[in-house]
Amino acid sequence: MNGPIDFLKAARSFRFAGVGIYNLFRYENNARIHLMACILVLMAGVFFDISSVEWTIIIIQIALVLAAEALNTSIEKLADLVMPDYHPVIKVVKDTAAAAVLILAISAVLVGLIIFVPKFLLLF
Predict the structure, then answer these.
(1) 28 marked as part of a ligand binding site
(2) Catalytic one among 69, 70, 104, 105?
(3) pLDDT (0 to 100) of residue 94
(4) 54 marked as part of a ligand binding site
(5) pTM of this prediction?
(6) What is the DSSP letter of 122?
(7) Nearest to 98 by CA among 17, 16, 34, 20
(8) Hey, what CATH topology would domain 7-121 get?
(9) Which Pfam families match (predicted)?
(10) Taking the alpha carbons of 116, 117, 122, 124 in that order, is the dihedral positive or negative?
(11) Is 9 annotated as a binding residue?
């Protein structure tokens, strides 16, 4: 370690990250869709009074999907800057990054079904 922690530098980093989160949800339609799904899942978690373990799993799934969406957006923006015109390799890069989001979203849906379907069925 080179010296004491620079808290001002750390605060600036958090501010930059906050701007990134704001921009993600302001400009990216798919991120807003994921955010709405997240809100619905959180409301369902409160309604069904899920356990601490279930909350932990849900929060991890939400974080994974949103982080993947942020990375996908970053990759797409960088790829568009580097190669504004169509390029087959850039297409593969962008499609693969989108696939990562889809894989995690499917995983999150499956986890949600495992947690919420039995609770929903108990209502009837």
Answers:
(1) yes
(2) 69
(3) 97
(4) no
(5) 0.90
(6) T
(7) 34
(8) Helix Hairpins (1.10.287)
(9) DAGK_prokar
(10) positive
(11) no
